[in-house]
Design a protein that fits this description.
about 250 residues, alpha/beta, four-stranded parallel sheet, 8 helices, globular
Length: about 250
């Protein structure tokens, strides 16, 4: 009986300690979401060196990998966003990688995916007795509303494709996210033709990427433009970027 009580006490203490241990995050939006779900925001810490890193332009430093090896719990973004961290999620039971395919990997840019990411993290945190806020305070309250009027939107990255598809908008993706990527004359010609055919043009320009001069010259004074960093900032609400985009798309 004494042995049983001792074992139960040890298990209880270990769970309490585990619940108080820091989780490291590899992406700012993973940390933002985790911090918004837990009662103790101090449990989550961005890995130093990854805070403002653009995965399309650079790769992690040696110090980042040292942190990965030492950490007893890492929250990873979907593999499509950070392929260089493949295999590290199995190091600790407290580690977890958000599970999304490449099309939906930017989970914070679609209400359905943000809700799914929340469910995945909640399920993981419960295993380690992390105290969570009530689900009513989470991000599963709203879905995607079909647009009242279809817009033509030029996108500089494919990450917003799921959102615009579900909202019912027409769009053209030019993929300027690679700093060393030269847009082909064919793509530029197709875009120029689309712009000529449409009466109203909207642009969503992701400011964290390099954009060729040929693209900038296509933006006219009468075009609607939203320029923002879609990666987001640390300590922001995980739905802040999404709300700005939806507001822009819903404006007449």
């Amino acid at each position: 009986m004494k042995l049983f009580l001792c074992a139960a006490l040890i298990l209880l203490i270990s769970r309490h300690v585990s619940a108080q241990e820091t989780f490291h995050c590899t992406h700012v939006q993973v940390c933002n979401l985790a911090s918004s779900l837990a009662k103790n925001k101090g449990l989550f810490k961005m890995i130093h060196g990854l805070e403002g890193m653009n995965p399309h332009h650079s790769s992690p430093s040696v110090s980042v990998y040292k942190t990965l090896k030492k950490s007893n719990g890492i929250l990873f973004a979907p593999l499509a966003i950070e392929p260089w961290f493949k295999g590290y999620e199995g190091k600790s039971a407290r580690s977890y990688r958000l599970d999304f395919d490449s099309l939906n990997a930017h989970f914070w840019l679609h209400p359905k995916n943000l809700c799914e990411a929340e469910k995945q993290l909640r399920s993981h945190f419960i295993k380690f007795s992390v105290e969570l806020k009530d689900p009513s305070e989470g991000f599963c309250k709203t879905g995607v509303k079909k647009a009242d009027s279809k817009k033509f939107v030029v996108l500089t990255h494919e990450s917003l494709q799921p959102l615009l598809t579900d909202m019912g908008h027409d769009f053209f993706i030019i993929n300027t996210h690679d700093e060393h990527h030269d847009l082909s004359p064919k793509i530029l010609k197709e875009l120029a033709q689309k712009i000529k055919e449409k009466t109203t043009i909207s642009w969503i320009i992701e400011s964290q990427f390099h954009h060729p001069e040929a693209i900038k010259k296509m933006i006219k004074k009468n075009h609607r433009v939203l320029e923002l960093n879609t990666i987001g900032l640390q300590n922001d609400s995980p739905d802040l970027v999404l709300k700005r985009i939806i507001k822009f798309l819903e404006e007449k």
